[in-house]
Amino acid sequence: MAVYVWKNAFRAVDHQWDGNLFATAGAQVDIWDHNRSQPVNSFSWGNDTSISVRFNPGEPDILATSASDRSITIYDLRMSSAARKIIMRTRTNSVAWNPMEPMNFTAANEDCNCYSYDARKLSEAKCVHKDHVSSVMDIDYSPTGREFVTGSYDRTVRIFQYNGGHSREIYHTKRMQRVFCVKFSCDASYVISGSDDTNLRLWKAKASEQMGVLLPRERKNHEYLEAVKNRYKHLPEIKRIVRHGHLPRAIYKAANLRREITEAERRKEDRKRAHSAPGSMPKQALRKKRIIQEVE
């Protein structure tokens, strides 16, 4: 229907949830109208390339981008410049807004973690989502806003609760290679992943969910069993069974190594703090540690 040509390469694109504008990320962030052959507006903060862009589902004029200079920037189309910006210690590969809580977004980072932020307070993350053992390449929220899916360079797809520190589900196959893009289906029942082995894969959002039509008695039985699990999920035996899962040997060893490194760093900091003057080395939470500065 239309071809849009511009002087810079496009790295990412996203459309407004309600409106006729779409944004492209590249050497700068360009805002396009369907009926124009030239951008109606352009934003840039620094000289680095923008690698992802996402519009806010609740505020059509707000969008978030991540750039190769390790920054996450929030733009407002009603302003002539960027609204806010944070610089992290490692690069953010993708961002996704929570569709049910439009003030919150989650960033997929190179340091194997995802960070959930409140756009009104970027000085610290609301939650840190761990479990990947390599860079997180893409992220997407479920339409319900209660969970999100991530794809990683470690050849796995994981599903996290929006406020959970560890993944609920993990998907992997022997043939699947590095995962570069993931998406939730519109009914929140399936997850689609794309990897560099040239394949698209369709996964169930709940691995144990029964496919097909359920009889009323079957549905009631599933609901009862789920309620029992939720009631006793705090017990160590139930928690161990729920979290149990098989991992590829390489990922299992990498996770153990990462755990040992993290524990060694924590012990080193504790010993430094014990032999330093009181108050000279305050403890810093991981939610703040990965942020270098916030710019307004």
Q: What does this molecule look like?
A:
This protein has about 300 residues and is an alpha+beta fold. It folds into two domains: about 210 residues, YVTN repeat-like/Quinoprotein amine dehydrogenase (Methylamine Dehydrogenase, Chain H), CATH 2.130.10; about 35 residues. The protein is about 20% helix and about 35% strand. The protein has four helices and 20 strands. A five-stranded antiparallel beta sheet has the order 5-6-7-8-20. A hairpin with a 3-residue loop joins strand 18 and strand 19. The longest helix has 26 residues. The chain is globular, with a radius of gyration of 21 Å. The relative contact order is 0.10. The model has no long low-confidence stretch (mean pLDDT about 90).
* CATH class division of the largest domain: Mainly Beta
Unreliable stretches:
none
Structural class: alpha+beta
The average pLDDT is 91
Q: State the helical fraction.
A: 10-25%
Q: H/E element string?
A: EEEEEEEEEEEEEEEEEEEHHHHE
By CATH, the superfamily of the largest domain comes out as: YVTN repeat-like/Quinoprotein amine dehydrogenase
Termini separation (Å)? Answer: 39 Å
Strand content: 35-45%
CATH topology of the largest domain: Methylamine Dehydrogenase, Chain H
Radius of gyration: 21 Å
* Shape type: globular
**Strand count:** 20
- What is the name of the CATH architecture of the largest domain? 7 Propeller
**Largest sheet, strands/sense/barrel:** 5 strands, antiparallel
Strand order of the largest sheet: 5-6-7-8-20
Tally the helices. Answer: 4
Number of individual domains: 2
